[in-house]
Amino acid sequence: MPIRRRLLLALVLAMPILALLPGQGAAAPTVWFVATTGNNGWDCLTLSTPCRTIQGAINKASDGDALNVAAGTYSAATNGEAFPITLDSTLLIHGAATATTIIDATGSGQDVIYAFGSHGVYVDHFTIQGGDRGIRLLGYALGDITGSIQDNKISGNQTGIYITSSQVGITNNEISGNVHHGIHNTGSPTVIDRNVLALNGSGGGDAAIFNDQSSPIIVNNLIGWNNGSGIYNFQSSPTITNNTISINYGGSGIYNFNLSSPNITNNIVTSNADYGIRADVTSPSINTYNDVWANYPGEYYLTSGGTGSISADPRIVSILDFHLLCSSPAIDHGNNGAPSVPPVDYDGNPRPVGGTVDMGAYEWQSQFRCPVFLPAVLR
Q1: Which residue in 66, 172, 323, 338 could disulfide with 92, CB within 3.0 to 4.6 Å?
Q2: How far is 369 from 377, CA to CA, in rounded Å?
Q3: How many whole angstroms separate alpha carbon 5 and alpha carbon 155?
């Protein structure tokens, strides 16, 4: 991205923070620059005089400022980055691009990014890897930490994202290959939207999303190939709408345990190693308008499919592509009145198409199912 556009983007993204600042006519937030070729002794206020470490720029920044982090690998070996990178004020931290801006805590035994207290955290366009927890947000009371974690790859940590008492948006991330949970959510009414959660977990009680005493909104996610459950709820009552939860080979699609009561609607839950939707006797769930199919040893355990639910091959493109074929029974079979139905699907395409919402994370974009003059049409 050209330099002028990157600076403009940083300033535009920083503008919402002005609302958090006290007083009339508050000064615009400062943009601090970081590059592996920089020096923490420089002023860090221009592209030619950047800080060398992300923590160095954070230490200079004030509440509401933005960091513009150049492409490169930020680690102990490459630029002397120390871990965890710690935030205790509202900051916007932007990477150049997910594939090229890498924060690597391998060998540190520490979290990669750690924020605590009561403030905003905005992190986007990084690969975050090699830590105990890729991102740890620790609020002290319900919803203390706000903000967004967006457009990142969070991979190769013990746990991908660990949040406590935080109300952040977790959006459009790849959360993959973490040893235990992809997301561990304690006491946080957050929104988890349009993420890929894959290849997380080592069996046992691990899950792509583990909710502990939490009621998040979970919509439009692709949750598959995890060695654990897709979603594990412990004393939690999330809203789970329009996700595709498939081929989790170490657990159930959705597991509800110990006084959990989720609302589960418009999902495709297929080909998981344990039950599709499993509960214990203390955890009733509202299951409506879901396609729960081909889970082993069965579709439901101590719960059942409710109104509008089906058990049929959803006819996805392949086990690596969860888009719907035009002949899928999940098309037009959801409930428009389900809680938190998203206005777009995982791809950002409009939802619903054809008047009735589809099941799963993808919305079939043609109002015509399978025109007779064409073979089976893929989206």
Answers
A1: 66
A2: 9
A3: 28
Neighbouring-strand partners of residue 146: 120, 167
One-letter amino acid of 334: G
**CATH code: domain of residue 8:** 2.160.20
104 is a domain residue: yes
Domain-embedded: residue 59: yes
User: Residue 335 and residue 99: Cα distance in Å, rounded?
Assistant: 37
Q: Which domain, by its residues, includes 140? A: 1-20+27-156
The whole-angstrom separation of Cα 363 and Cα 269 is: 16
Residue range 95-109, pLDDT digits in tens: 999 999 999 999 999
Using CA atoms, how far residue 373 sits from 76, 210, 369, in Å, is 60, 46, 12
Which amino acid, residue 310? I
> How many whole angstroms separate alpha carbon 247 and alpha carbon 35?
40
For the beta carbon of residue 2, count every other beta carbon within 10 angstroms.
7
Is the pLDDT confidence value at 9 over 50?
Answer: no
Environment class of 177 (CB within 10 Å of its CB; exposed 0-12, middle 13-18, buried 19+): middle
| Whether this model's pTM surpasses 0.70 | yes
End-to-end distance of the chain based on CA atoms, in angstroms?
30
The residue whose two tokens read 């923590």 is: 55
CA distance linking residue 338 with residue 265, whole number of Å: 6
Q: How many domains are there within the chain?
A: 1
